[in-house]
């Protein structure tokens, strides 16, 4: 079988679904029908918990591989790659057995840290690309240690990789999402480890981008087509999604909308621009970083509203972009760092009896678009130019109205990635050195839409500030 005929098996470890799909190796495009999905239902609690059952998750994912096997889609696989949610953590005992469920990015439980006046968080942020925020292991691990005595810690992708290969290792990309990585060196950061209260040998070993493992003996009989196939280390879904949309140069920002949303730029780690406090920075691979801003309400917001409002269409039919009087501040799931707005802080302002369900949906999508635009403008300034924009992800694919709203909010043309499976596509591209192109529609913002969005921007910003203040009361 020649290289152009080879296939890639991609595992996508999401928060709302675990998927396995097969791609053409030549361009990382999906093979029609070669996709299996296991729906994931996180468990949420009033204490701020947001967890996944590890055993159920892994068995559901492996069931997807069984389904592909039954349909003959695991023949001719040349590589296995993984795209994964960032920030998850599991506490382990000294035998490597999980002592906790998978604690996801949406979980708000952690401890407050008092490190004294000698701790320089600005320098810490510049070095690790993260903050001392509940999202990261620097605050998760002390919280877990306070209630138990775990021997080690790992993320969901590390444990999936261990099940597949027998080796508990992680990638520089996944490690960067823990908040414990020195971005410049690609090794665990000594100060971050000290803050977390662990040593490097309690965390998965970091392997280089070119590392590969192979399927363990346990699964060779179950999936004979994967015997000897190289298994590549996982790529964080944010980094993978950027590359998968075609946004992998310093002049292009990728806006991806899945369960959550983000706007990011991929660039070389060497000579990277100084990191503004408002942005995070993680690693794509050994040579590249990704800098951006993330938002907790996006595709989840869209899906929730269409269900709650019992809309027959996923589009706000009959509503002009920027034409709603109501303003929605989309803090339903709180905010990502450095802000600390908790979940349950979403607000509608200016509701009247004239508003329809479509108006409410439109206002929410406009609010989410304005949030993403805040990040895009910071990135414009950081990279010294008005960045080109590519749009990708399941949320983008689901709503033509939202695509036009984002384009009008950004007040610049956008390119829509034709491939909705941007995470899997990007993980394949990172592992195999591919350069996928967006290949989709080019959108030009309508002047009237731009004007209406510009007209409500000031009101939105003022009301957003009120929502932030109210969340701390």
From TrEMBL:
On the tree of life, the source organism's domain of life is Bacteria
Question: To which species is this protein native?
Answer: Kribbella aluminosa
Endpoints of the signal sequence: none
Q: Which family does it belong to?
A: Belongs to the FGGY kinase family.
- Fetch the Pfam families from UniProt: FGGY_C, FGGY_N
Class of the enzyme per the UniProt entry, highest EC level: transferase
- Alphabetized Gene3D superfamilies for the sequence: 3.30.420.40
The Carbohydrate kinase FGGY C-terminal domain sits at: 254-431
Q: Which UniProt keywords apply?
A: Kinase, Transferase
Coiled-coil ranges per UniProt? none
Give start and end of each Carbohydrate kinase FGGY N-terminal domain: 8-244
What GO molecular functions are on record for this protein?
A: gluconokinase activity
UniProt name for this protein: Gluconokinase
Q: EC number(s) on record?
A: 2.7.1.12
């Amino acid at each position: 079988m020649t290289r152009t005929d080879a296939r890639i098996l991609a595992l996508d470890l999401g928060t709302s679904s675990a998927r396995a799909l097969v791609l053409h190796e030549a361009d990382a495009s999906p093979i029609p029908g070669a996709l299996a999905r296991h729906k994931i239902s996180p468990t949420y609690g009033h204490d701020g918990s947001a967890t996944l059952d590890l055993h159920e998750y892994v068995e559901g994912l492996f069931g997807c591989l069984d389904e592909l096997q039954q349909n003959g889609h695991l023949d001719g696989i040349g590589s296995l790659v993984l795209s994964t949610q960032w920030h998850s953590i599991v506490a382990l005992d000294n035998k490597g057995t999980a002592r906790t469920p998978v604690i996801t990015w949406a979980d708000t439980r952690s401890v407050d840290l008092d490190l004294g006046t000698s701790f320089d968080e600005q320098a810490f942020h510049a070095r690790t690309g993260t903050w001392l925020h509940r999202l990261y292991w620097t605050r998760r691990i002390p919280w877990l240690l306070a209630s138990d005595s775990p021997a080690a810690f790992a993320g969901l992708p590390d444990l999936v990789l261990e099940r597949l290969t027998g080796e508990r290792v992680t990638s520089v990309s996944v490690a960067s999402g823990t908040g414990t990585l020195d971005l410049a060196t690609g090794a665990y950061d000594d100060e971050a480890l000290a803050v977390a209260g662990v040593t490097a040998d309690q965390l998965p070993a970091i392997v280089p981008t070119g590392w590969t493992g192979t399927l363990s003996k346990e699964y060779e009989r179950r999936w004979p087509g994967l015997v000897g196939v190289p298994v590549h280390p996982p790529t964080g879904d944010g980094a993978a999604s950027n590359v998968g949309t075609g946004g992998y140069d310093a002049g292009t920002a990728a806006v991806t909308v899945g369960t959550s949303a983000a706007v990011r730029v991929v660039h070389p780690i060497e000579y990277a621009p100084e990191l503004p406090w408002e942005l995070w920075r993680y690693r794509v691979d050994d040579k590249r970083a990704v800098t951006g801003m993330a938002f907790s309400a996006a595709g989840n917001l869209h899906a929730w509203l269409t269900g709650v409002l019992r809309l027959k269409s996923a589009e706000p039919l009959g509503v002009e972009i920027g034409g709603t009087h109501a303003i929605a501040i989309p803090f339903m799931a709180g905010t990502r760092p450095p802000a600390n707005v908790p979940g349950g802080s979403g607000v509608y302002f200016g509701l009247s009896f004239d508003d329809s369900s479509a108006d409410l949906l439109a206002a929410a999508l406009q609010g989410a678009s304005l949030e993403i635009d805040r990040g895009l403008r910071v990135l414009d300034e950081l990279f010294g130019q008005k960045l080109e924009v590519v749009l990708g992800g399941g949320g983008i694919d689901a709503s033509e109205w939202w695509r036009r709203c984002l384009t009008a909010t950004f007040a610049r043309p956008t390119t829509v990635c034709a491939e909705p499976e941007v995470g899997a596509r990007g993980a394949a591209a990172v592992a195999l050195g591919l350069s996928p192109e967006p290949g989709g529609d080019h959108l030009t913002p309508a002047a009237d839409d731009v004007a209406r969005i510009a007209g409500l921007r000031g009101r939105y910003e003022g009301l957003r500030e009120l929502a932030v203040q109210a969340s701390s009361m």
